[in-house]
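Sample log: GNAT family N-acetyltransferase.
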Amino acid sequence: MEPKVIELRHYQQDALPEGFRRTLLDVHADAYADELVTDEFVQRFPWFVDHWTSLAGFACVVAYDGDEPVGFAYGAPLAAGREWWREHIAVPPQRCATFGFSELMVRPAWRGTGISEQLQSALIDNRPEDLAVLLVDPDHPKVRQLYESWGYTSVGFRQPFPDSPRFAVMLRTLR
């Protein structure tokens, strides 16, 4: 399928516009409509938005089709020594400043159009960090394969919260 042409808007932690949080919550509500009623972990997404947007260096890219937000990707630099990949790598790379890639979400009507890759690239490609790390639910092998096609490699598994899935930890060298 030919990638859809969309507008990508970049946001930083120190200049989030009014309504930004609501935009992310609306996209999430559409993307997880089925799970939102039954999955308590999915219902905690507003907490994650508040947590990540409060982090120094928070960065987000939102995809728009006209005036409609159709997806987003966000994350922030992780504190040295506290990166999600550390417990899985015996000898860390010499250069290991890490960007925590927290979320990539596209509304169902726009999936399969190339927007995910555009969002991922727009968020990650010009980062100053050496590495990017993310967590993927292994019950979604197509999502994991998509990240692998973008250069991410599984290095282990992690369950960050008692009520969360056990995620695959994926790492990518940025420079």
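Observation: The chain has a mean pLDDT of 92.
Observation: The longest strand covers residues 68-77.
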